[in-house]
Amino acid sequence: MNYLIGVDVGTSSTKAVLYDQDAQVITQANYGYELHRNAAGMAEQEPEEVINATEQAIHDVTTAADLSTGKLLAVSISSANQSLLLLDKNKKPLSRLITWADSRAQRAADNLKMMTEGQQLYMKTGVPVHPMSTLTKLLWLREDEPDLFNRTAYFADIKAYLFYRLFNEFKVDMSIASSTGLMNLKTCDWDDQALRVAGITKDQLPEIVDGTTQATGLVPEAQEKLGVPANTPFVYGAYDGALSNIGVGATKQNTVAITIGTSAAVRVVTDHPVIDPERRLFCYAINKGLWVVGGPLNNGGDVYEWAVKHLVDSSAVKNEQVDPYTLANHVIEGVPAGAHGLLFHPFLGGERAPLWNAKARGSFFGLSHIHTRADMLRAVMEGISMNIATVFQAVRALVGEPASVTATGGFARSKVWRQMLADILNCPVNVPDSFESGCLGSVVMAMQSLGMIDSLDTPQKFIGKVSSYQPDPAAVKVYQRYTPLFQQIEDMLAPAYSEIAKLQERQNN
Question: How many angstroms separate the Cα of 86 from the Cα of each of 65, 153, 160?
């Protein structure tokens, strides 16, 4: 038997999955690390912790492979995008890893958004002007941390740094480069105007390579830690969102993929760049000839986790002898669609699409004496889903009506949430039984790199069993009344977000 390993270097953990040559899961390993946050919007990681977790995860799954009779064909890497690591002339870290969730570049983003160049760069790069992007992080660092910025010889993302540690080569896959706001979508190379605005040079950035590019020749120290044969090819892969689409077979323009994990995203793959004239959506290159259009949302499962923590009665959990999430889902099922006229805007962590406003804040609307904690729990789940529906509508308007929607992520463990999403979208929702779409997508890209398959169209046998949820007409009718109101209130509250954010910052400092 031959083997492949898919690795997903995420925001909170690294997961490695060992597959056979038919992409069937054999075993997996997962190691977490801390995301350091503060009231100023910092969201950083220790790069060494991420590297160690990744090496350990790969090592653990490799031990399950029988390499005496079989061969490890490749290891392929998925990672979160829009991370930034500052390196010295010897490519040693000068900073912690600044993640996509870091919002300290808000002022720089606001300033760039008001400039003509901000609009020009969006049209050239497909990346909305927002604190998440590498471009705005560089502008913030240059202004607020000039000494650190000027001492920096190289700028990397976590994957480029990982490959440097493993192979002593400084390269980045096309999809990660595309999400920085520094890569031109037409040339698939670093954009001169973006570099000038950021105040850096092309020589300070990794070389952009195709996602199917292989690295070989592990440095001895890495080979010992990983426990894989030294000549094993490592495939650069792509960013986690694009690979999630590939992993669920959503590689055509009429198939939308929705992910609801800690955060959330709506994405569709196209064969040409599609730029949103209203600047609501991103457009990133995946690989040569493939692009992904969509919107990332800050607020997904983490908001539901917050609601369960604060709204589920701990004594009821003890009496029912179930975990809080099982009890919450049971409670939500007993509340009718619309939560008795209660709406929730889930912007606890600011918001990317569709608002692109890091100062956005969450709120309940319509709260009255009749409402219970059960209503509030349902309203939270509905609010997350209505926010996703807003982005889904923008994607649909830009690229056309989808033939199907495939949804993955931790939300899929909740049957009530699966059905709710179909009702709110008013569209059938397909949910694969396996949630590890990012790792599977990376393995599919490795298979293409090795010549095992011709394209990134994932065979159905790789995806496995899929459950389908049809919209319930009665619930659809309710949500078609509430979703426009959700969006109307969102527009009404937007001017106040900045002021409440200022007040909160003053009180918390």
Answer: 36, 8, 12
Residue 128, C-beta contacts closer than 8 angstroms, at least 6 positions apart: 122, 279, 280, 281, 282, 352, 353, 356
Q: Mapped to the 3 state alphabet, what secondary structure does 244-266 carry?
A: HHHHCCCCCCCEEEEEECCCEEE
Going from the C-alpha of 275 to that of each of 111, 181, 238, 272, 342, the distances in angstroms are 22, 13, 20, 10, 35
Please, which residues have CB within 8 angstroms of residue 319's CB and are 6 or more apart in sequence? none
Nearest Cα residue to 293 out of 311, 309, 281: 281
Residues in Cβ contact with 488 at an 8 Å cutoff, skipping those fewer than 6 apart: none
pLDDT of residue 210: 97
Q: What is the pLDDT of residues 7-20, one digit of tens each?
A: 999 988 999 999 99
Contacts of residue 444, defined as CB under 8 A and 6 or more positions apart, other chains included, come to 23, 246, 247, 453, 456, 458, 462
Largest CA distance in the chain: 68
Written as six digits, the tokens of 4 are 């492949």
What is the rounded distance in angstroms from the CA atom of residue 30 to the CA atom of residue 11? 12
DSSP state letter for 272: S
H-helix or E-strand spanning residue 29: strand 25-32
CB of 393 closer than 8 Å to CB of 379 = no
Amino acid at 326: T
Average pLDDT (377-386) is 98
53 contact partners, CB below 8 Å, separation of at least 6:
13, 14, 31, 32, 33
d(CA 345, CA 415): 22
What does pTM read for this prediction? 0.91
**What phi, psi does 245 have (nearest 5°)?**
-60, -45
Beta strands 183-184; 189-190: pairing state: antiparallel
